[in-house]
Design brief:
single chain; about 60 residues; rod-shaped
Length: about 60
């Protein structure tokens, strides 16, 4: 019984899982920020690339 209590106490004091969860939350936050930036500025970037492509094809106006 004492071994079981000692095992439970050592399991309770481990923090390895908490670190993994923290890294997962950070990665999810970064992914969310990237998705929001692409959603917000996607149309503007497409327009900029189309303008640059037209300029390269036709020369400066």
């Amino acid at each position: 019984m004492v071994k079981l209590i000692a095992l439970l106490q050592s399991y309770k004091s481990q923090e390895d899982g908490a670190t993994a969860i923290e890294y997962a939350l950070i990665a999810a936050g970064i992914a969310l920020a990237i998705a929001a930036a692409v959603y917000a500025f996607g149309d503007v970037l497409i327009g900029q690339f189309e303008t640059m492509g037209d300029t390269l094809e036709n020369g400066p106006s």
